[in-house]
Amino acid sequence: MFLKKVALAGVIGLGLATTSAMAEELKVGYSLPATSHYGAAATAFGEELERLSNGKWTIRQFPANALGGEREMVEGAQIGTVDVVMTSTGPVGNFVPETLITDIPFLFRDYAHAHAVLDGPIGRAILDEFPKHGLIALAWAENGFRNLTNDLRPVRTPEDAAGLKVRTMENPVHMTAFRTLGVLPTPMAFPELFTALQQGTVDGQENPIGVILSAKFDQVQKYLSLTQHVYSPALVILSPAVWNGLSDEEKDWFKQAGKAAAQAMRKKAYDDAQNGIAELQSRGMEIVTDVDRAAFEAALAPAFAEYAKTFDPAKIEEIRNYRP
Ligand code: EAX
């Protein structure tokens, strides 16, 4: 639902009541602080949309879970209480099962591979499934490659990870992977995570560097292992309550704003991944760089066998071997 913002007051104050200037203010929600890659995305979205629409739309940002966790925000977009959600794919598979294939660990080799797949026909086809589930997806954005943190011991191998109680996103693909590693997966909404780590309800969690930094998990976690075990896509989601009222030209503006958001998010997530590790170290985390990633991938063999039953194995291979 739009929050109507009558921008007339300022105009009249200047004695320039030449335009009816009624901007429609969109509520944009995300789970991290405004300084994060999500904030960068929201700001880029707002600027681009305002520019393209000549001020018809403005945005109001609700960072840091102000509108609830990612699952709740996506629900909000479905029913029209939230206009735009910038979210990881974490809980999205519970709404749009077609996204789940992108959550498979060790699926994407690097950023270029992920971007090629998601921005190409495979990614497009997944975005096209959203309307069937009462949502609009404007673009694939980026949360980043996820890394394991914990408070008990340095983790280099799957054996080191086994037995840890690790918070996962509310995502069945991720949970299968962690269970396979002998980790006790504890699905939990992101807003509860800091306290759960602080109180020792869970020993660890996993997230991209930009998330660990901006959520200040260094305050409650000692060890950061650069596992990069899974690429974590993000999405710019729009409520159908907004979309259905748009002209074709306006829809195009929203898509372009979604792309600008995705670009800004990818850039900030990448910068954080490059510069954030040193920052986390200076804040007192012990960084484990010599992670045996090949051993983690090998230990996940039973999980891969399970994914091959849940998903079309040919599609998984197509993604793995994708060349634009
Ligand atoms: O989207 O829940 C998570 O761990 C996500 O990566 C986080 O909310 C950023």
Using only C-alpha atoms, the radius of gyration works out to 20 Å
Query: Tally the helices: what do you get?
Result: 14
Task: Please estimate the helix content.
Answer: 40-55%
> How many beta-strand elements?
10
Output the keywords.
324 residues; alpha/beta; D-Maltodextrin-Binding Protein, domain 2; 14 helices; 10 strands; 21% strand; disordered N terminus; binds (2R,3R)-2,3,4-trihydroxybutanoic acid
What is this structure, in a nutshell?
The protein is α/β, with parallel strands linked by helices and 324 residues long.
Describe the structure.
With 324 residues, the protein is of the alpha/beta class. The protein has 14 helices and ten strands. The protein has one domain: 3-Layer(aba) Sandwich (D-Maltodextrin-Binding Protein, domain 2), CATH 3.40.190.170. Strand 6 (165-168), helix 7 (172-180) and strand 7 (184-187) form a beta-alpha-beta unit. The longest helix has 35 residues, at 248-282. The site of (2R,3R)-2,3,4-trihydroxybutanoic acid (EAX) has 11 residues, from loops.
Question: Helices and strands in order, then pairings?
Answer:
Elements: E1 3-6, H1 8-13, E2 22-29, H2 37-52, E3 57-62, H3 70-79, E4 84-88, H4 111-119, H5 121-127, E5 136-150, H6 158-161, E6 165-168, H7 172-180, E7 184-187, H8 193-199, E8 204-207, H9 209-214, E9 223-238, H10 240-243, H11 248-282, E10 286-288, H12 293-299, H13 301-310, H14 313-320
Parallel strand pairs: 2-3, 2-4, 6-7, 6-8, 9-10
Antiparallel strand pairs: 1-2, 4-9, 5-8, 5-9
Helix pairs in contact: 2-11, 7-13
Bound molecules: (2R,3R)-2,3,4-trihydroxybutanoic acid.
